[in-house]
# Entry
Amino acid sequence: MTLSPPAPAGFQTDAAEQWHRVHPVSPLVRGWVAVVGVMVLFGRNSFEDMLRSASSGRDYGQQGPPVWLILTVVAAAVVVFGVAFFLSWYFTRYQVTDDQVRINSGFLFRQQRQARIDRVQAIDVVQPLLARIFGLAELKFEVADAGRSAMKLSFLKMDEAKRLRAAILARASGLAVDPTLTGTVAEAPEREILALSPGRIVGATLLSGITVAALVLIIVLGCTVLWLRSWAALAGLIPMILGLAAAYWKSFSADFNFRIALSPDGVRLHYGLLETRAQTIPPGRVQAVGITTNPLWRLVGWYRVRVNVAGYGTDRRDRGGRTVLLPVGTAAEVLTVLGLVLPDPGVGKPGEIFSAGFAGSGDGSGFIHSPRRARLIDPFAWRRNAYRSTETALLCRRGVFFRSLEVVPHERTQSLSLFQGPLMRRLGLVDFELHSTAGPVTPVVHHMDVHEARRLFTEQSARAARARRIGRPDRWMSLTHPAYGGTAAGSNPVATSCPKNGTAQDTEVQHER
Amino acid sequence: MREPIDPPGLDFHRVSAKLIPLRFITLGIGALVVILIGSLPLVLRTLGSWQKFPGALAWALAIAALLAMGWRLALIPRQVRAIGYAERDDDLLIRRGLFFQRVMVVPYGRMQYVDVSVGPLERAFGLASVKMHTASASTNAALEGLPTDEAARLREQLSARGEAKLAGL
# Structure
């Protein structure tokens, strides 16, 4: 085993017996919570004693443990943590070969993990606050196991992390590696597409469900005070107020400084106030896209875009933050972002059609909605429940207060099903469900007419089969699809319009094929 | 018996009729427990150890448990007959359900792996269950009550076709 110095330029893949170690400070960055915890545990007693004796002004040094004992404990703690950290560092090694990533870790319980590079679904570079101070970053990459486990390299120098990311992504995207260059990869340059201002994030946070909860809390507070005629009742609600404040803070700090950039190896998202994260979703890894809005956001025309990526899964930690492609955006921004993950909308005038999907109602733009009799079980949303298929994707629309549009590329369809309950059977209605990988987007078209749904079912399975056979060529680099409005390269992407001049002929009736 | 949501022009294979007695046994054990619990107040009241329990309610509980379980058991034959599957060129169709019906299509090219499982009771009846997994967690494509050799044939068929269709994500 040889430990090589970091490569000066580009990236060299490792030979079979060449291993690297993570940065020596990383156990401390990872384990500082444990250190602080132990310090609090041991320190509290003596600290309390000190306070007590200081406040009473007598009995100096009588009750607390002697100084030498405290020092011994501290020294022992330093030694124990030092040894543990050293062993943890010493036994954590990694290597990136031409087609595998291997990470060995653990001293007592050894773990050896390896992943095939071409199966990597997405890569995150995460910097918790302490790691930022040291200029370190954690590299986290996902394989397609619905988010159950990720391979982590914590922590590396920021440059090293970026180089590794570039190397892994270049191979994951199937980039032909020139054999004469022995696997050198230059880092892919980034092009910024969209940045959200802090004001937007504040606005989105203020108009979120947290505010609804806050309003409810204020009403409860008011009623309690009036009813009990005493301000003391407020004390009991302090934890709730703190909880709300924490929720606001979390929502704000997670999405702060959100930027979307495009690099040849994928869509890159940067965000975070204290802990920053750079997420890379390689081309063709997006399984489904969902655009949602809530009643408050609709007042200002804001939407949220989420994606299903096989490696992320549902990701219930971090409140699903990693599956968010755009935390809050206007309709124009949503279309820009859609252009990144669905480079080929497969239809002319996609701006108009996608807008009709996430904002519209009725049967405009070729959408087919529930029949009129569906209003008996779906009085508000029946004109919203609709689908439309393009050459490359199926659009499923639903919801009237909490509107959503789900887009699934045909070749990403996993399986389909039709569902009918007894009431729907009486009315001749059927739910059409499209199964995507685990994630926040669950495409479904509610309450379709039986014949319509059955035809959609048959046609969609044929379309999916055809799309699988053809397999889309990797068109990632030819991203600027003019049909979305060609905004991807613009320096002012916010001022996007959706021009009416589509490149392809718009297919008003989509079931001719 | 073609249901309105079944795609036209398809003949579904039905699962083995031996699934009916198998389900009677498995559900019957559960039903017995439910009925016993439901009639407990009535028994205790009749024996005189729980006099304060209202008589009408005790009877109602026992009868409700009996009726609900009887209904569940009575549905089994029709439910089993409603299970069907059809192999097409590119995908497998599965249908099930009587009141809550579902038709599902699983493309061979999307299958990640196929499970064949046999429990002790199933073995006694010579049956097996086949479950198909895609990358989606919501694909709940399971077939119960296939004869063992049919299950083996289906498994081989599915993996061969999955390979031919270059199964992927």
About this structure: Chain B has a mean pLDDT of 89. Chain B has five helices and seven strands. Chain B touches chain A at residues 4-5, 7-8, 90-91, 99-107, 109-110, 134-139, 141, 165, 169 (CB under 8 Å).
